[in-house]
Design brief:
Length: 219
C-alpha cells in the first residue's frame, strides 16, 4: 500500500479517482492506527497510543545537539544520544528522553526499577507491596537484602535511592534507620542483574527494618 500524491487525478475519470481516493483513505487509517486511535471510537479518537522517535542528532552523531524552541513554542520533547562525557561508562544507556523550555534542558531520567516491601519483625519474612522490574528479593542475613532485576540493565552505572521504616524496639525510638548499598573491599557489589541493600542503625549495627523502599534510575 502506498500514498497517491496526485489525488484526485484530473487526467482520470471520476470512477478511476474513487479507487485512488479510497486507497489514500485506507493508507491514512492504517498508518495513523500504528500509534494513534483513528476512527476507533468517540473516547479513543484523537489520542495517542504511544510515541516513538529516533534520537535527535541534527546530522552530528559524534557530537549530539538538542533542538531549540520555535517561535511561539513553550516546550519541546525529544530523545538524544548522550555524549561520552555524560555517559562515560562502557555499556551505559546512551539514548535518553529530554525536554527543553525557556529555562533550559532537563533529562527525563527513566526509572529502571522500584519496590516497596515489608519485613516481618519476628521472622524476617519479606512481603512485596509494590514491584517494577524486580524478579526476587532474598534475605540471606538479618538486615541484608539481595535484589535481582527482572530485565537486566544496560550497565552498572545506575543510581539507587533507598529508605526504610525502622522497627521500634524499646529504647530505640529516636535512632535513625540507614539504608545503603553493600560493597566488597574495593568495589561495589551492584551489577547489571542485581544489587544488595543493608539496613543499619546510627552506630553501624545491622538491624531488621519493618519496611524498605527503593528506586533505581539510569544505567
Amino acid at each position: 500500500m502506498s500514498w497517491e500524491t496526485t489525488a484526485p487525478d484530473g487526467t482520470k475519470s471520476v470512477k478511476a479517482n474513487e479507487a485512488i481516493l479510497q486507497a489514500n483513505t485506507t493508507y491514512t487509517e492504517t498508518e495513523m492506527n500504528k500509534d494513534h486511535f483513528w476512527n476507533i471510537g468517540a473516547d479513543e479518537d484523537g489520542h495517542h497510543k504511544f510515541a516513538q522517535m529516533p534520537k535527535y542528532t541534527d546530522g552530528a552523531v559524534a557530537t549530539p545537539t538538542s533542538p531549540t524552541l520555535d517561535t511561539g513554542m513553550d516546550l519541546v520533547y525529544f530523545s538524544r544520544l548522550k555524549t561520552a562525557v555524560e555517559a562515560p561508562a562502557a555499556g551505559a544507556q546512551n539514548v535518553q528522553p529530554y525536554s527543553r523550555d525557556a529555562s533550559g534542558i532537563s533529562q527525563l531520567l527513566g526509572m529502571r526499577a522500584c519496590c516497596v516491601f515489608d519485613v516481618n519483625a519476628g521472622t524476617g519474612a519479606i512481603t512485596p507491596l509494590y514491584i517494577h522490574n524486580i524478579s526476587s528479593i532474598i534475605n540471606p542475613f538479618t538486615g541484608i537484602y539481595g535484589i535481582t532485576f527482572n530485565t537486566e540493565l544496560p550497565s552498572s552505572s545506575y543510581m539507587v535511592l533507598a529508605n526504610g521504616m525502622k522497627y521500634e524496639a524499646a529504647g530505640t525510638q529516636d535512632e535513625p534507620l540507614i539504608v545503603s548499598l553493600t560493597s566488597g573491599a574495593t568495589t561495589a557489589s551492584k551489577s547489571t542483574t542485581s544489587f544488595s541493600l543493608i539496613t543499619t542503625n546510627k552506630s553501624g549495627t545491622v538491624v531488621r527494618p519493618l519496611q524498605v523502599s527503593f528506586v533505581v534510575f539510569g544505567g
